């Protein structure tokens, strides 16, 4: 079972990229962020006709999260305490018993912005939900754009980034608290090497110069981590014309 997360940066603008990648990468579950459309405008027909089951939580112009699954979805959770009504979290339980969540953590704008405390509170809310899910002893994957680079190895220049949004000590502390619950960072379980990224700014030739950040993550419960076979970052979509600034991150579970 292959599960991927991808901040697609507008599902309608990148639909051809998404459909092409689904055909070539052949995931079983895809967690999308920044779909940037209300549920009624989501490309349901194109995806449903290709065999995908959908769980959606959209928002006009901003945010938006979705779960695409080859398996039927038997349960949905569409809200997270602390999301202030923004479309940043959706959770789906699949027919095989695996639970997945697509999470879009606020960027925070800057450490001086009032959005930064909101970001920290949102990360706290994700942790609280993870604690609840752990009590159920289910296999689950909390995937998404966390907008946090956890370690110096996850940024192109740790000295320059220190104290800035995306690499602030308070953000990183909250991410560590998720891991300390017993969750597994799927990518890091297979790839200890530094400087592998999932996001590159559109500006200043960041992609061409490989000046990126690893801010998209798949966090697995112990029951899911026991089944973990592989994980990686697929850089291919980031090289496409008019691409998202993020690229997919995936893991594979034995089922």
Describe what you observe in this structure.
By secondary structure, the chain is α+β, with helices and mostly antiparallel strands. Helices cover 26% and strands 26% of the residues. It is built from 8 helices and 14 strands. It has a 6-stranded mixed β-sheet. The protein has a 6-stranded mixed β-sheet with strand order 5-6-7-8-12-9. Helix 3 packs parallel to helix 5. The protein is globular, with a radius of gyration of 17 Å. The termini are close together.
Rg over C-alpha atoms, rounded to the nearest angstrom: 17 Å
**Tally of domains:** 1
Question: Number of helix segments?
Answer: 8
% residues in beta strands? 25-35%
Shape: globular
- CATH domain topology: Deoxyribonuclease I, Chain A
List how many beta strands DSSP finds: 14
Q: If you average the pLDDT, what whole number results?
A: 97
CATH architecture: 4-Layer Sandwich
> Residue share in helices?
25-40%
Topology:
Blueprint lengths: L1 E6 L7 H11 L3 E5 L10 H6 L3 E5 L7 E5 L3 E5 L11 E6 L4 E6 L10 H21 L4 E6 L12 H4 L7 H12 L3 E2 H5 L8 E2 L5 H4 L2 E2 L2 E5 L1 H4 L2 E6 L15 E5 L2
Parallel strand pairs: 1-2, 7-8
Antiparallel strand pairs: 1-14, 2-4, 3-4, 5-6, 6-7, 8-12, 9-12, 10-11, 13-14
Helix pairs in contact: 3-5
Summarize the structure.
The chain has helices spanning 15-25, 44-49, 115-135, 158-161, 169-180, 186-190, 206-209, 222-225; strands at 2-7, 29-33, 53-57, 65-69, 73-77, 89-94, 99-104, 140-145, 184-185, 199-200, 212-213, 216-220, 228-233, 249-253. It is of the alpha+beta class and 255 residues long.
